[in-house]
Amino acid sequence: MNNSLLPLHKTGWLYLLMVFWLVCLWATITGFFNEISQFNLSFYQQLMHLRVDSISTPWLLILAQFIFFCCGLILLWRLQNKPNLQRSFYLASYCLVLFACQYLLSQFQYWLDLTPSILALFCSSLLLQGYQRECQLFIKVNAQYEPLLLQQLKTLVSYGDEQQISYLLNQLPVNEQMVQGVYQLCQGNTIAADAIRVLLLTWVEKTDIAHQESLQMLREIRQRKLHKKAQENNSDSLVTGKASAQTSDLNLAIKQKDIAQNYIVPKEEKPDVNKINWHSLSSKTAEEQPLEQTLILSEAAEQLEQTLVISADQTQPIATESLANTMAFKHKQFGRYQVEGLLGKGAMGIVYQGIDPMINRHVAIKSLQLSDSVDEVELAKAKQRFFREAETAGSLSHANIVTIYDVGDEGALGYIAMDLLTGAPLSHFIKPDRLLPVPLVYQLMIQITDALEYAHKQNVVHRDIKPGNIIYDDDLQKVTLTDFGIACVNDNSRTSTGVIMGSPYYMSPEQILGKQVDGRSDIFSLGATFYQLLSGCLPFEGDSVVSVVYKISNEKHLSVGKCNDALPASATRITNKALQKDVNKRYQSMQEFKQALINALKRDFKQAPMI
Hints:
Blueprint: H1 12-30, H2 34-48, H3 59-78, H4 84-106, H5 115-159, H6 162-171, H7 176-187, H8 194-206, H9 212-244, H10 249-262, E1 295-296, E2 308-310, E3 318-319, E4 326-327, E5 333-334, E6 337-345, E7 350-356, E8 361-368, H11 376-394, E9 404-410, E10 413-419, E11 424-425, H12 438-457, E12 460-461, E13 470-473, E14 478-481, E15 488-489, E16 500-502, H13 509-512, H14 519-535, H15 545-554, H16 560-563, H17 569-578, H18 590-605
Helix pairs in contact: 1-5, 3-4, 3-5, 5-6, 6-8, 7-8, 8-9, 12-14, 12-18, 14-17, 17-18
């Protein structure tokens, strides 16, 4: 019988058994069973004509009695989930073995007292039988209780009370029947608002049961909401775009030149995370403009925040984001994907929102668009890095890694179609006045380490872990790892030394020196990200690339606890180990890093990980 719903250690039967065993032990030591033993001995005396005065019980036999007693309890414990008939057979066989030992020893005038062992086994068996009866009753009541919970949930859904629904969802037992019941409830017509469906389906997603129908329904709702917002945001700009399409190409080029010369970067406004559609590859925003109008993008990022690529024969770093300063966009389609709107600027081009009309799936389209000043060598390297992202990320399948759907060329432009993500990059939560709650940071870090553990098992090293490459969805409390543009496959045939790739603030010492890297380099970068999310400060800061990389290579970082004294001790311990300059002193795997975070989350915040 399966007693997993009511384990013995969670009931009072275990304590009753332990008390009874202690009483039996006490009775044996104090000689409480002596009268029963004398009666048993007189029976053997008459049966075998033994002389009572010649029978002895040496200390070895006393030890044997204790061993038999313990063996009986172990046997009974292992038989606790067996049927009554099977358990009775094993116990009877054990008793026969005991009596056989007693009979053989009596032939040599030795007395083995079996009274305590037999009584303990018999009474313990009765107690375990009572526990099994309680299990059967509990299973019966539980089978009737779950439909009542589903019925109550259905009533709350019909009323639309989200607060009560959330409270009840936290009380639901997690099993396949309950997950299926919640999914069927979402399919019904009693739910008027998508918000309640998202609430129910998010509960399913957080369980360990991978219910594919529920997850697919949740993705469709998210994409539908995102598409609706994009249409609202682009409605005005599309009208303007149609009017500007009648302008001649010559006037358009003159206007582009004039705007580019007089363009002033607008003052950055604080974005509303809940109202902006972000794509995984954009850590900066770009105003949505008409699709057929000239698009002017300004280089607004600091050099230290950009991803650098430095070859062995170069003396100056090239920021990949400088490869696409100004460009004109006239495309309405990439392959079979139709463009719907603008999402932002990526590392080497623009990221658009699009749709696959064949299956009505909304996607993000990352395009490779380089300025005319880029020479053929840089163009070839940029294309190689661009399509490496599709090759590397496309081979990975994980809930916290962006999904690649397609890759191709459209004229002179390359493009990658990928999952359209909602939320904002973690780079929007690294200021002291905008930090996420500390327990949530631990939860998100556990998700990232789980994704990177999977990638490392596939021999993929990301090499550019930073807050801007991690997208956080507040509704789902989920992060997605993106931008595998400079990732490498960790084998000798495809990894070369002498090439520096990464973002300076988050690069490991071995990356800075151009050495061959492995997964422990990602551990250092993730440690720097963890440090910044907890404190709002960088572990290594400087006014230039040179000063930053010098500090990473030679100086010890300030303890994160000194930047934020409200952090638990585990934050300092974990960041210090992850940011060790010697790779052999860091965590040696993402699994080890993840386990340290899980242990700290349980110990410091009494929470279970959401993975």
